[in-house]
Amino acid sequence: MKIIPFSTLMVSTMGAPTAQSTKVQTVQDIYACFGQGDIPGIMGRLPENAVFESNGNLPWSGRREGLANIGGFFQAIGSNAQVTVFQPSNFRIEGGKVVNDCRFEGVAIHTGKPFGYDLVMSWTFDGAGHPLTFNGDAVEDQLPQAEAAFMKSANLQTVHDNYARFGQGDIPGIIATFADDAVWSHVGDSAIIPFSGTFHGKAGVGRFFGLVAENVQITSFQPSNFRESGHEVMNDIRIAAKVIPTGKTYDTLIHVTWKFNTEGKAASWAATGDVSDVEAAFMN
Predict the structure, then answer these.
(1) Suppose 197 and one of 40, 126, 148, 190 were both cysteines; which one would form an S-S bond, judging by CB atoms 3.0 to 4.6 Å apart?
(2) Which of 93, 120, 149 represents a domain boundary (last residue)?
(3) Containing structural domain, residue 252
(4) What CATH number does the domain containing 244 carry?
(5) Are residues 77 and 118 in the same domain?
(6) Where does 177-250 have alpha helices with state H?
(7) Tens digit of pLDDT per residue, the chain (284 long)?
C-alpha cells in the first residue's frame, strides 16, 4: 500500500504538546497503523462505545457502533479491496474535531476493477482524549465510479457462487450452472494426474469432481485476481492438497478461464499453468 507522508498539518505542535496537537497525533498514529495493517493497534486506541460511519454503498459503508462492529469495518475493507493509495493530508481542527482530507485508491478484489475517490475524514474525542467517532465523507460525485468497481456481473457472480459451492461440497449446484454441451479441461498429463484432460457435458464435469475427491484431500483453496472480458471470467487459484494414493503434498497456482454462453450458462472451464509439482506428488 502506498502511504503518502502526512502533509499540511494546520495545528502548531511547537513547544509543549497541546490537547489539539495530541489529538492530531493520535489520528495520525491510527492512520499509520492502518497503512501497516495493524488493525489491533487501531482497536486498542478506541473506547468500547466508539462509532464509525461512512457514506455511499461500498462494502464498508454504513454505521458501526462498538468495537465488535468496528472490526467489521476493517474486515470489509480487507476482504473486498486491495488498497494501493492511502493519502491523508490537510489536518486541521474544526469545532473541536480533527479533520483531514484523504485520497483512497485500490482494486476491488472480486472484480479486478480499480477504484479511487477523495473523502473528508473527521474525528471526535471523549473526555479522556480517546477517539470516539469517525466519519468518512466521500465526495458524492466520485462515489458512483467507486461503487461500480464492486458490482459483479451475472457471470462473475456465478463464478463466485460456484467457488462457494465447492467449499460447501455442493457439486450438483456447480454442475447446474453449466450448459449441457459444456467442455471442462485441466492442464497436466492425464496418465499421471487422474483429473487432468478434457471432460464433456455435465456428466463429464461431474466425473472431474469425482476424480478429484477420490485422489486428493484439498487443504487450501484460494481463488483470486478476478477479471472479466466480454463473456469470459478469468481468475487464479492457489491450491494445496495431499495426494491420497502417495501421501505426498503439493501447492500450486493455476489460471482459470470461464466462458459463458448468451443464456448465462458456463460453456467451458479451462485451467492452465505449471502443474509439475502436482505430477511429482502423484508419482511413486
Answers:
(1) 190
(2) 149
(3) 154-282
(4) 3.10.450.50
(5) yes
(6) 201-215
(7) 554 444 433 333 334 445 678 999 999 999 999 999 999 999 999 999 999 999 999 999 999 999 989 999 999 999 999 999 999 999 999 988 999 999 999 999 989 999 999 999 999 999 999 999 999 999 999 999 999 999 989 999 999 999 999 999 999 999 999 999 999 999 999 999 999 999 999 999 999 999 999 999 999 999 988 988 899 999 999 999 999 999 999 999 999 999 999 999 999 999 999 999 999 999 98
